[in-house]
Amino acid sequence: MSFSTLMYHELRLSDEWKPEQPSPIDVRQSYEDALPLPLFASVERFKEQMAYLQDKEYHTLTLDELKRHYGEGEPLPERSVLLTFDDCFQSLKTYAYPILKEYRFHAVAFVVSGWLHNEPKPFNPLQSACLAVNELDDISDVFEFANHTHHFHQRTGPDSSSLTLKSDEEFRLDLIECNKLWQLNNRDVFAYPFGIYKSRNVEVLKQSGFKLAFTTEPGLNDSTTDPLQLKRNVVPYFMDLDAFARIL
């Protein structure tokens, strides 16, 4: 049986979002970049998508269910989907959390631990600011948290990132540093920053005891998919419901 993993980053209300204006990223570490258009999703359409999943009786997977599926061969429930959010931007708490809670859905947030602010910041829809560390506690009844590096979420070229340029030992130590965040309740689950990685990165994860890792390659997953190279389907801002249904 196959399942889809959906990937979100930022949510915005349609009347507060300006697609022609870059959204600067505001994180604790020194970082200069803006979030690109395909990584935004509409709050209104997100709610419509979640209503669709409920109407079609989809089961939102937990990471433990996936670990048992790939580790022990345990079958997944019919009509399963995994909801994932990268980077822990403020819209995770402001918009995604109450909608998911309303539908009693589970979701996964991949955390760049070095990006989390020490104190909460006011929400500004014109920038992409990360949550503060203690804000993760406020959404932990809906979200599971997993590793997205501590300090290696930096693009260095079209096909390279800090992760791919670092040594295996540096990567291993960064994994350990991110896993020190006590809210991480899945310290054996990883998402590759930007979906950029090399085979040696997969090997480091395997040697470090990681059970699951997620790419940004689109498509469905099944029992034959490498659990350290799981596919994810991005849900962009302008995706209508018919297109959404096709990636499930």
Structure, explained:
The protein has 248 residues and is of the alpha/beta class. It contains eight helices and 15 strands. The chain has helices at residues 43-55, 63-72, 91-103, 135-138, 162-165, 168-178, 199-207, 241-246; strands spanning 4-8, 10-12, 23-26, 34-35, 40-42, 59-60, 80-86, 107-111, 128-129, 143-147, 155-157, 160-161, 186-191, 212-214, 233-234. The strands form four sheets. Strands 1, 6, 7, 8, 10, 13, 14 and 15 form an eight-stranded parallel sheet that branches. Strands 4-3-9 form a three-stranded mixed sheet, with no helix packed on it. 40% of the residues are buried. One of its GO terms (molecular function) is hydrolase activity, acting on carbon-nitrogen (but not peptide) bonds. It holds the Pfam family Polysacc_deac_1. This is Chitin deacetylase.
Task: Describe what is shown at a glance.
With 248 residues, the protein is α/β, with parallel strands linked by helices. It has helices at residues 43-55, 63-72, 91-103, 135-138, 162-165, 168-178, 199-207, 241-246; strands at 4-8, 10-12, 23-26, 34-35, 40-42, 59-60, 80-86, 107-111, 128-129, 143-147, 155-157, 160-161, 186-191, 212-214, 233-234. 28% of the residues lie in helices and 22% in strands.
Describe this protein with a few key phrases:
Polysacch_Deacetylase; alpha/beta; Chitin deacetylase; 8-stranded parallel beta sheet; 3-stranded mixed beta sheet; 248 residues; TIM Barrel; 8 helices; NODB_dom
